[in-house]
Specification:
Layout: H1 9-29, E1 32-40, E2 45-52, H2 61-75, E3 81-86
Parallel strand pairs: 2-3
Antiparallel strand pairs: 1-2
Helix pairs in contact: 1-2
């Protein structure tokens, strides 16, 4: 008997999109946006697309991606790693 019910891949996609929606207002302040490209349930890899730019931003791109990854992994336990793609 399984102790934890696994979510269907579409449920995981929806959970990722919901977590991204929560971050979107903060990123838009810096003229950025993010979206889920795909989630591979077998490997646990989420591919996230980043768009826009932040010419006056004090945060480095690396810090920003680390923050996004930490938030998503906290919100969606099925995510094992995240791969970012630009535009």
């Amino acid at each position: 008997m399984a102790l934890f019910k696994q979510r269907a891949p579409m449920d995981v996609d929806d959970s990722i999109r919901t977590a991204l929606e929560g971050m979107r207002p903060l990123l838009r302040i810096e003229t950025m946006d993010i979206a889920l490209v795909e989630f591979d349930a077998e490997s646990g890899v989420a591919v996230i697309k980043c768009t826009g730019d932040c010419p006056d931003c004090d945060l480095s791109a690396e810090m920003l991606t680390v923050g996004i990854e930490a938030h998503l992994r906290q919100q969606v336990s099925e995510i094992r790693s995240i791969r970012f793609v630009a535009r």
